[in-house]
Structure formats: C-alpha cells, structure tokens
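Translate sequence into structure tokens.
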Amino acid sequence: PTGTNIILQDSNPEPGINQYRVRLENNSMESVYISNYEKIFYVRNQDLFIYPNPIATGEMLNVVVNDLGTVTLRVFDMMGRMMQEVTDPGTIKTIDTTALIKGAYIVEVLKTDGSRLTTRLMIF
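Result follows.
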C-alpha cells in the first residue's frame, strides 16, 4: 500500500489543552515517535478559556469558547465599566489588550445562542 490512514480518539479528554504524541510500532517491534506534540482544545458548551492569563498590556488575548459563530467579547473593569467590546468569528477569538491598563478585569462572552460566559483576566 502507498499510505495508511490512522484515526486516534481520546474517549475522555480533559477540558482545556490536551497534548498528544504518536508512537508507531511496526511488525519488527521497532518504534517511531512523531516528534511534534499535537495540541488540541477540548471545549465543552459551558467552558471558556482565555490565554495567556495573566497577560502583558499590548499582547493579544486568545479566547476559546464552544461556538464557531461570531460572538461578542466584552471586557469590564472591577467597577463594572465596559472597557472594550469586539465581535469575532472563528474558533479562537482574540482581544487586543493595548487599551487596557494593569489590573483585574472580567471577560464576558455572549454566544450566538444568547448564553453568557465570564472569567477573570489579569493584566500586568
């Protein structure tokens, strides 16, 4: 044969980043490792992951949520004032933190189904 297709499945992934590395073993019991780790996010409907957190002012904040549609991302300061609002499509959404000063914030995601998820963010 000229090629082989292999399907790997994790029956119980942990929420967040899961890293996988493949070891192939031939009939002579020789092993070959695929040197790169594959990083895959497993996101349940109620999960919201932001990274890096804490983050330096001016860096791009990545937001991972189980919604492939265009969601609304809001950043609030600890006084409840909305500091930033963006809409972002795609699997990993981003927020530019250039306008945010050092401190604690709340990140809110308004999903396309109307549900809201929140988490804390630290800017240093």
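Note: The chain is about 0% helix and 50% strand.
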